[in-house]
């Protein structure tokens, strides 16, 4: 199951669509379309690209290889779009009356506000990291030492934190015991031979760490009560007791918010990767390849079709500037496209109007001390809770340094909407109050924060396109064909929504389509 | 269960001993014994330390803080002992007629020949890394994309590689289906209420990705046959089919060699860590703190008790040198102690004679291309097989670089003995031939290798002390008390055998004992 499946169980997943033959497999090598030869190349042909996010920069980079003259118009003063690493000095003022924020993290500390991990099978993303010399490191996605915390439940295990490893080891133990019992008693109507049943019971004994009577009575896999005996010297640690099966079943940890996503989701199974130093290493590497091609602080105001191509009006230094080109690659997120004055067709405009975007937010919290490492032994990974903070992410870099920034919430939908509606100060207060239920060290160690709500972030106004079957069927197709000489790219034009791989693959698709069309022209 | 449990199921584990109160919990802060005050400190008192491995260097470092004058005698030209990172230029000639080897890895490439990972709960190891400014990174221990390979089996799944994630997802699916069926049919004599049974079935549906009829029919968690359709363009990938339960049960993957150690073993559950740049960053950091205190190339020849302390004879530059001190901390591995001329008591000598050491070996293979990443999407982690190579370790650093070094075998016991008995050339040939069954890219991409057998490595002659209940009971106690003024330290004097944490904790124990004794003296 994909991450998106968990977030929106009704939408068709990338995975299933790949399976149904509706997607191209991601290529894993440099993109080398023929620049010469049978086809005339793109030399001198002008392409205007809207947006210096990954899709726009990839399109400019690849079109540049083919000889096209690209200009990227970028509303922000930075590239990367939703690939945004928050560091000391990062500034933002959200729409809807947000207060200006300036990040005051210490030097070297950061969090990835948007894209934050790369699945090991996103070959295209990995290919661009390689091609652009962006060094990667392991992103510790599934840390068994992180916590689950069910707030407001009624069982014995509610309103207290539990190590994920305790939950996993106990549930593996009890389910192995129950199945082993069913097999022992031959009560199960199944097709296995006696020998195979023996093998299965053997498997269960190891899987659950059952005793010789095939019972689960706890396991040293859960670790030890070392800290319960702080006297040191000869004072011993003691083996922990398992939680009771009934307590576990009533714990609430079987709700989707607590799911074992690191095992369940194809995109989140080990191994995940991240660029060393922050995800913005990727857009920065593209920028180096696009010197002089990106016009920053240049919000687009109008997108017009002309007889021979396109005309774009943008603002720059308080003035209105007009630029013309033969083609346009429009990578604007749909919430931005929706409000753009344009000659776009009705089907495209309706797609922009009706394809919903994910509401989502994060907060980075800088602490004086990496207490999650020092006190809890948590080096990276994710704590999950049903509270409004939803997830706490621990950095899997800068280990054992003096200070640290963790992601104090990563939330979605109504939780993100409610939290995003708060003032910057109130968000911080909320993140600290709820996080302190899991980490009581919060109040003593906290230094400063920076929060963001993607649906309130200028020039994005949403996390990612959030299709369901109906919107995918009704509105999506309009984005796949050029509208005159205007081509669309960005994660919203793919079944890899929310992933950087979507931006990359959509850009290649647009480049391929433009280049093929140029080839057509010259054949005539 | 500990790693050692898997290797030697009969030995008492650190964990269980910790539970029984036979161990101190590892402290997590700097070691600050009182250097002044009630006790007289160690100023001017001479301590001779045998061995500049982690135990010896830690003892010298901590005794130094207290004012003792330490001299470390080290037989090798390097520090670290079994903490040994193999790089270009590393030289070794094994005992028993081994040929001289010089490593020819490219600059920046390496593998850790001995200690290679740090459990997140080995607080003392982490404390020393912090105190000595050794930066850490994630060690990717449990990579679901690595392979299992059962050689020589007869089932349909023998003699072919299988992704660990396929095995896990399928077994989770089938066992969830079987237990769900037992619960549906109420055939199981258990104590759960109807409501709890419903919750458990709900859990199983998610855990196994069962369909609405509670059957496991495969899952997109297994990934997709992307590479089966290499035509790109509109050619689709296809969903993979699950393996059959019977085939899985007969696959041989339920043998211990294939165990899911990343989930089972307390020491190997996520998260594991490693120093950036190689494990020898730790001994190198100690060396900086011990300037002038280590005498290299100084093999010890005699260890004598004197009226006031100890006398040690060692060789240096072809000459015999004698040194005296008030105390000795002997960290020599028992296979070395066994052959030392000494006044040690009979009980200590018998311990050295009869405590067995693990036979174990590794080979580093440098390849032109990181095909395991590029072709297989494997970034770190461990492939497991019942062949003589036993484990293949993929580096979780230097990701996407041009070349790479992987560990082509990591084996134990009779496998290590057989492989260690081969010539350097034959080991390489064997590693390449067996590894190529799993990675057919081996022959085309191979460049060079460096292999080691710890039981044939001079000044170690074994991997680690390998106690069983009998040897622990009979011989171990002799190592815990001083023999005259000679104190013993090293992993073999702990229940943390094989781990660096054992070296650290044993050194602190010896320091504490010496310092306490000095305190006793001055009271008289």
Automatic annotation (TrEMBL), chains A, B:
Q: What is this protein called?
A: Tryptophan 2-monooxygenase
What the record says about family reads: Belongs to the tryptophan 2-monooxygenase family.
Which GO terms fall under biological process for this protein?
Answer: amino acid catabolic process; auxin biosynthetic process
**Species lineage:** Bacteria, Pseudomonadati, Bacteroidota, Cytophagia, Cytophagales
Signal sequence region = 1-30
What's the EC number here?
1.13.12.3
Q: In which pathway does it act?
A: Plant hormone metabolism; auxin biosynthesis
| Key words, A-Z | Auxin biosynthesis, Signal
* Matches recorded under Pfam families: Amino_oxidase
Task: Write out the GO MF terms.
Answer: L-amino-acid oxidase activity; tryptophan 2-monooxygenase activity
> Start and end of every Amine oxidase domain?
54-514
**According to its UniProt record, which reaction does this protein catalyse?**
L-tryptophan + O2 = indole-3-acetamide + CO2 + H2O
InterPro entries, per this entry?
Amino_oxidase, FAD/NAD-bd_sf, Flavin_monoamine_oxidase
- The enzyme class is oxidoreductase
């Amino acid at each position: 199951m994909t991450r998106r499946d968990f977030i929106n169980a009704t939408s068709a997943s990338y995975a299933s669509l790949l399976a149904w033959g509706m997607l191209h497999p991601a290529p894993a090598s440099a993109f080398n379309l023929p620049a010469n030869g049978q086809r005339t190349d793109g030399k001198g042909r002008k392409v205007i690209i809207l947006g210096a996010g990954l899709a726009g920069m990839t399109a400019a980079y690849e079109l540049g290889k083919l000889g096209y003259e690209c200009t990227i118009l970028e509303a922000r003063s930075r590239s990367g779009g939703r690939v945004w690493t928050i560091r000391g000095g990062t500034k933002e003022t959200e729409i809807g009356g947000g207060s200006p924020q300036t990040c005051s993290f210490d030097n070297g500390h950061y969090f990835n506000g948007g894209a934050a991990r790369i699945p090991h099978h996103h070959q295209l993303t990995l290919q661009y990291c390689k091609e652009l010399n962006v060094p990667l490191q392991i992103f510790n996605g599934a840390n068994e030492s992180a916590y689950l915390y069910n707030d407001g439940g009624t069982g014995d295990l509610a309103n207290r934190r539990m190590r994920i490893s305790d939950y996993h080891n106990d549930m593996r133990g009890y389910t192995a015991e129950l199945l082993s019992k069913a097999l022992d008693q031959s009560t199960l109507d199944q097709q296995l031979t006696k020998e195979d049943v023996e093998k299965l019971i053997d498997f269960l004994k190891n899987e659950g760490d059952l005793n010789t009577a095939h019972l689960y009575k706890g396991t040293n896999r859960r670790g030890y009560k070392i800290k319960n005996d702080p006297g040191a010297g000869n004072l011993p640690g003691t083996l922990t007791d398992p939680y009771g099966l009934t307590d576990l079943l009533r714990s609430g940890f079987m709700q989707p918010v607590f799911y074992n996503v690191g095992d369940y989701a194809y995109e989140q199974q080990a191994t995940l990767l991240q660029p060393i130093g922050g995800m913005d290493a990727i857009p920065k590497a593209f920028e180096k390849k696009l010197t002089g091609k990106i016009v920053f602080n240049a919000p687009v105001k109008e997108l017009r079709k002309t007889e021979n191509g396109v005309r774009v009006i943008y603002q720059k230094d308080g003035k209105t500037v007009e630029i013309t080109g033969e083609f346009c690659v429009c990578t604007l997120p749909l919430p931005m496209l929706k409000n753009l004055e344009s000659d776009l067709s009705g089907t495209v405009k309706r797609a922009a109007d009706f394809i919903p975007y994910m509401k989502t937010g994060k907060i980075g919290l800088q602490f004086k001390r990496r207490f999650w490492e020092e006190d809890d032994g948590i080096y990276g990974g994710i704590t999950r809770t049903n509270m409004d903070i939803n997830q706490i992410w621990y950095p899997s870099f800068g280990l054992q340094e003096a200070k640290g920034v963790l992601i104090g919430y990563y939330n979605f939908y109504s939780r993100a909407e409610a939290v995003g509606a708060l003032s910057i100060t109130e968000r911080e207060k909320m993140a600290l109050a709820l996080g302190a239920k899991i980490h009581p060290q919060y109040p003593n160690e906290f230094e400063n924060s920076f929060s963001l709500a993607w649906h309130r972030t200028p020039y994005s106004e949403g996390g990612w396109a959030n299709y369901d079957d109906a919107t995918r069927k009704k509105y999506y197709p309009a984005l796949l064909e050029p509208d005159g000489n205007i081509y669309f790219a960005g994660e919203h034009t793919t079944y890899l929504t929310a992933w950087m791989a979507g931006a990359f693959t959509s850009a290649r698709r647009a480049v391929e389509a433009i280049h093929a069309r140029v080839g057509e022209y010259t054949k005539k």
